[in-house]
Design a protein that fits this description.
Layout lengths: L3 E8 L3 H12 L4 E4 L23 E7 L1 E6 L5 H4 L29 H14 L12 H12 L5 E2 L31 H7 L3 E3 L2 E8 L7 E9 L2 E18 L6 H7 L1 H4 L8 E3 L4 E8 L1 H8 L20 E3 L14 E5 L3 H4 L12 H10 L3 E7 L6 E3 L9 E4 L2 E7 L4 H18 L5 E5 L2 H4 L1 E3 L29 E3 L14 H21 L14
Parallel strand pairs: 1-2, 1-9, 2-6, 3-17, 4-19, 9-20
Antiparallel strand pairs: 3-4, 5-12, 7-8, 8-9, 10-15, 11-14, 11-18, 12-13, 13-14, 15-17, 16-17
This protein binds flavin-adenine dinucleotide.
Length: about 525
């Protein structure tokens, strides 16, 4: 039997995988994308929180001190995310953290990344939104900010606002093809140039290839679509160049598992993991005060005027992104929506109090809960323990896993969270407008949908697994282009920065591919043009 081969193997098909896959395929390389999750399209996405629907494509991975929410499908997080698309502020690239020295590579700054942000924004594309696009919930946050002496603005989104119905089912995938996920731009672009995308293919490890002309081989398992814990088949594919983009929780685990066969894996793999400083709170709003203090109202009994309706992210205050303020005191406060089930976590104290009558009373208030996400500066204190036997984590049930990540917040991270809590209270509790409850760490630990770090770019080999061109130190031809390469929390949602970094890495990957004898050139226009 002849060995399976490809020029470039891309592992994972989120932002970090789809973007290099497009540039390499469009440039002439043979590209194979192996993706662990299933492939779904608009008609397959369900407006339902029933088991068997969203949990086919979304995983909640519980670690020690942190839980991560992540996409598990072709297109990765771009299919289930809320599409807030923001550039990170200049100061985010100059962060020093507790290391006390520059974290980002010297070659990278906001100014040097701007042309790559431009490309990503054009390709998705990203829409500037205006007040008519802002949901009632975003309006409440904006009005509360204004009353407290702060500004608040609409958030740019990778959504075709002419197609968006404001149904608020973004977590389940967009049935209207309004959300500009990788399924609508880079992935079809790559496929139109011959790239092959294989769903339900989970890569387990990498090792040196013994196949003449090929440098690396990847061992993968083919998963049963109705039970991801069952393997239907195993396989091996040889590649000249590998792009690892299995996400912040997936990539370090594959590298850890490959440490022996590959040899010399940088010690920074699986370290410096960050939840992007995410801190979620719920403001339980007094509807009467919304009317009397903010002058806003909504008709009674209309589900579609509830706070949890409309696009999940519409407005944010940028007032606390002050470049002159000290590190660990800068953050963005953003209106966000999670399903009520998740909002149960807002209960404070160590004992769940949502049983019986307490549960009924709490459900009655859900309609008035305004969820706010603070994206602060954490300290990259997360680490990964030993990898599980297969996969990125131990799958406990559909949509639920146990990971090896640990995140025990340092004093600096706690200081950052406390600063954002204080600011949110000063806005949302002014004149008893609402009562703010940070999600309970006692019950849920820290929860993030924005994991970053864990195999990051940098100049210092001791604290960064990758060079500033995203190549794994000591392993020419292995690149990491997903969220794990982002060196530190950004104070904004990370996807646009991940996309811009992947755009920036593409020419370096092409250059390495040319060196390994692949006939490929860089310079494709934005996908679809
Ligand atoms: C509910 C939710 C809402 C979000 N909202 C926003 C938002 O509004 N704005 C924003 O900027 N960000 C948002 N994010 C975060 C954003 O989706 C991620 O930052 C982004 O998707 C990360 O891109 P990535 O390429 O690093 O990884 P991913 O997009 O997670 O892609 C990794 C892919 O690799 C696959 N994979 C994993 N392991 C393997 C393996 N062993 N073999 C093969 N494939 C594998 C996964 O299935 C996945 O498809 C949100 C995330 C979630 C979950």
């Amino acid at each position: 039997m002849s060995a399976e081969t490809t020029d470039v193997l891309v592992i994972g098909s989120g932002f970090g995988g789809s973007i290099p896959a497009y540039h390499l395929a469009a440039g002439g390389a043979r590209v194979t994308v192996l993706e662990r999750g299933p492939r779904l399209a608009a008609a397959d996405f369900a407006h339902s929180m029933q088991l068997g629907t969203y949990n086919r494509i979304v995983d909640v991975i519980q670690g020690d001190g942190i839980s991560v929410v992540a996409g598990n499908c072709v297109g990765g997080g771009s299919v289930v995310y809320f599409a807030a698309s923001l550039r990170a502020p200049t100061f985010a690239f100059e962060r020093r953290g507790s290391l006390g020295r520059r974290i980002w590579p010297a070659a990278l700054s906001r100014a040097s990344l701007d042309p790559w942000y431009d490309r990503a924004e054009e390709s998705l594309p990203v829409a500037r939104t205006d007040w008519p696009d802002v949901s009632y919930a975003g309006g409440v946050l904006a009005a509360a900010c204004q009353r407290a002496g702060h500004t608040c603005n609409p958030v740019p989104v990778a959504v075709d606002t002419t197609r968006c119905t404001n149904c608020n089912w973004m977590l389940s995938g967009c049935r209207f093809d309004a959300k500009r996920s990788m399924l609508l731009n880079y992935l079809p672009g790559a496929e139109s140039h011959g790239a092959v995308v294989r769903p339900l293919h989970e890569v387990q490890s990498l090792f040196p290839s013994l196949q003449s002309g090929y440098r690396y081989a990847a061992a993968y398992t083919v998963l049963d679509p109705s039970d991801y814990t069952c393997t239907e088949q195993v396989g091996l594919i040889h590649a000249k160049v590998v792009v690892l983009a299995a996400g912040t929780v997936g990539t370090p685990v594959i590298l850890q598992r490959s440490a022996l066969p590959l040899g010399g894996i940088p010690s920074a793999v699986g370290r410096y993991f960050s939840g992007n400083g995410d801190r979620v709170s719920v403001a339980d709003v007094d509807e009467e005060k919304v009317r009397s203090l903010l002058g806003l109202s909504r008709p009674d009994g209309s589900a579609y005027e509830g706070l949890p309706v409309g696009r999940p992210i519409t407005a944010a205050t940028y007032d606390y992104l002050d470049p002159k303020a000290p590190e660990f005191s800068r953050f963005m406060l953003q209106q966000i929506y999670f399903p009520p089930l998740t909002n149960v976590l807002a209960q404070t104290g160590g004992t769940p109090s949502w049983y019986g009558i307490a549960k009924r009373d709490m459900r009655a208030r859900w309609r008035s809960w305004l969820t706010v996400l603070a994206m602060t500066e954490d300290d990259n204190e997360g680490t990964f323990g030993l990898p599980p036997l297969t996969g990125s984590f131990t799958r406990l049930a559909p949509g639920l896993g146990e990971g090896s990540m640990r995140f025990h917040p340092t004093a600096a991270t706690r200081k950052a969270w406390s600063a954002s809590d204080t600011a949110l209270r000063s806005i949302m509790e002014k004149d008893n407008l609402s009562q703010v409850h940070p999600w309970s760490e006692d019950i849920a630990s820290t929860v993030t949908a924005h994991p970053i770090g864990s195999a990051r770019i940098g100049d210092d080999p001791a604290t960064s697994a990758l060079t500033d061109t995203h190549e794994l130190r000591g392993h020419p031809g292995i690149f990491v282009t997903d969220g794990s390469a982002v060196p530190a929390s950004l104070t904004v949602n990370p996807s646009l920065t991940i996309a811009a970094l992947a755009e920036r890495a593409a020419p370096a990957i092409v250059a390495r591919a040319v060196q390994t004898g692949i006939a490929v050139a860089y310079g494709a226009p934005p996908p679809g043009r």
